Amino acid sequence: MKAEIGVEAWAAVLRTRALLVRRFEAALRSATGLPLATYDILLVLKEAKGRMTVQALGELTVVSRTRVSRIVDEMEATGLVVRRRNPVDRRSSFVELTARGRTALRRAAPVYLGAIRAHFTDHLTLSEARTIQAALAKVLEAESDHSYVRS
Q: Helix, strand or coil for residue 6?
């Protein structure tokens, strides 16, 4: 592959991500009051059967590792999650999804999925979407330091 095309592809990924994050954030906040980062943490917790360490959340969410702890603190203050000490490793804690967090996630999911459709998938053919998914999955697989890749 020519280096120029690779750089252009990377730039397109970055610009698209920046634009769509703003769109998704606006949609979620206006419809539910939830920030996108909060939604992402709720979604990752749900996929993990409702419980995960803060460190694991930092590895699996789109939120930077340094922001995860602060956002979890805010989520705990609003009753979306609770922290529980890890009985095996007292230096760490688990973050658990509460009933209120599950309700917030259920309310926000259609908004999030609608934003994906309106601002992303409606602009692509099925073949284009499959190509993007396969290409990015290939990069994730090659660069991932863990086996979790969201599909």
A: helix
What DSSP line would sit under 104-146, residue for residue? HHHHHHHHHHHHHHHHTGGGS-HHHHHHHHHHHHHHHHHH-SS
pLDDT band at 145 (very low <50, low <70, confident <90, very high): low
Q: Are 97 and 42 in contact (CB under 8 A)?
A: yes
Average pLDDT over residues 98-115: 97
User: Taking a C-beta distance cutoff of 8 angstroms, is the pair 91, 77 a contact?
Assistant: no
Q: Which domain holds residue 15?
A: 3-143
Strands 51-53 and 93-97: antiparallel
Strand partners, 82: 96
pLDDT digits (tens, 9 = 90+) for 80-96: 999 998 888 878 889 99
- Look at residue 28 and tell me if it is in a domain: yes
How many domains does one find in the chain?
1
CATH assignment at residue 20: 1.10.10.10
3-class SS at 46? helix
